[in-house]
Amino acid sequence: MTVLGFLLQKEFRQIRRDTTILRIMFALPVIQLIIFPLAMDFDVKSVNISIVDQDHSTYSQKLISKIASSGYFKIVGAETSFKKSLTYIENGEADLVMEIPAGFERNLVREGVQKIGISVDAINGTKAGIGGQYLNSIIADFNANIDVNVKSGIVPQQGIIDITFTNWFNPRAEYKYNIVPAILVLLLTMIGGFVTALNIVKEKEVGTIEQINVTPIKKWEFILGKLIPFWIIGMIVFTLGLTISWLVYGIIPAGSFLTLYAFAAVYLVALLGFGLLISTYSGNQVQAMFVAFFFIMIFILMSGFFTSTDGMPGWGKVISNMTPVAHFVKTDRMIILKGSSFSDVKQEFLYLVAFAGVLNGWAIWNYRKTN
Amino acid sequence: MEDNKAIVCKDLTKQFGDFYAVNKISFEVLKGEIFGFLGANGAGKTTAMRILCGLSFPSSGTATVAGFDVYKQQEKIKKNIGYMSQKFSLYENLTVLENIEFYGGVYGVPRKEIKSRSAELVQTLGLESEAKKLVGELPLGWKQKLAFSVAIFHKPQIVFLDEPTGGVDPVTRRQFWDMIYEAAATGLTIFVTTHYMDEAEYCNRISVMVDGKVEALDSPANLKKEFNADSMDEVFYQLARGAKRSGD
Predict the structure, then answer these.
(1) Is A284 at the interface with chain B, CB within 8 A?
(2) Does domain B5-89+156-240 fall into CATH 3.40.50.300?
(3) What is the pTM of this model?
(4) Coil/strand/helix, residue B219
């Protein structure tokens, strides 16, 4: 135990002297939490639309004014032909073209059916896709009103199912509520996955690890000596991150801090084990960096950090579940936004404990003092 | 029966694929002896030394260091030896005193003793004004002297020095060897590799490795007689000239 004390003392002294790394570790939460949520906003606010009205009827005018007043669209062009209208998309001025064909009103009134053409610019897929959906719902709404007004058929129309969305736990569907908890996870991932791996591999490069291996230091002492300092720093950074989310965004975890910290603590142990494992397989910092980057990219893209894992195909979900990140991203959001209690997320906690055990066990097994 | 022997090695071999880095070497090192371990680059010196230090498993043969087996008791060996490698291995971003404290500590020297003895050591080395400076700022010669002092701080039975004077100026080298003599006088066994033949002359006995094998082993005087040479330089040249391996 006294040996561990000497190791920790040495590690903290070195961390304190490496002011560059130290500064980056503490700048990370500040910059990520302030820039990402503000810059990365997936809410689509103004979709540029170009309209071709070949009907010039009361109904077509009504539909157009409904679109204009919805607040989501900006009408950038009103042309008489589809061809002309399409040039707006070609020039990048419009995201959508809507074509109201001649006979729109007549067909609607007489037959109750009319098709409308919508063309989307699929280059900016997200914007056009969401724009298309907005437009659909406006048209559906418009249809519903027609049914009421026209009363054309003798046969009563089928009941119209009106769907209203309510965004629970994030009422205004604001992106920041979605991203801030995820960034907190990202912070721990960077510190656990990168910094530890590089720290140990640096000792390999400089040659001091050989000097360590020739001392009677026990494996677990050496490994704990590396894990504990970065675990402490990780928890401080996490706390700093929570403080910033509160100060800047007013986000206060709805669930218990104890549950949140228990998850963060175990998650960090798992990621430190991951970093450690990489360091035992890498000979130099470039290798370690590259391998860590490779896996962390997968972790971040597959974990539901940006995109929901629900949309993934079956095999994608399997990969996602194999990353510790996915489990913490999910529970972190549940605890912070929804206020889930420990018993709600117990299963995920056990996953993380298992990850921590496997990754660290593997790393300890693979670390050799004698080759 | 091995009372007066610090290291005993018999047919020690390290094989990488079909390459014999160390090929059936046998020798004994007496307690308190300064044993020079010579050989050209790539002869297998460092590999053999790493086995004896418990850093590497041998492929076959037997060896004991301080009475402990190199196959099974590496951690016990590590407790009883000091090691100073070719690569400078103190922490450059720790101060002189912090390095002494750390290495003393991991070998189990009590904190109180570390404190009093490191103050003494700094004084002996003439590093009083540098004690709180980072080791990275010291000139190479001083670093090497410090590294040696740190390697023997926990009072091991044997110290392994892998080219300790590489790149150091002649005056410092001389001072370094004075330190080695002083340490040997206290009963410490010194196992040292070097490329400087004048340093070989300072050893009690030397072995010369060529292509993984020990080709000669005796005192410098006897070796010169045997090879009918005026200097160790010539002895080494006669032995190493036939080497097939070269470079690192």
Answers:
(1) no
(2) yes
(3) 0.79
(4) coil
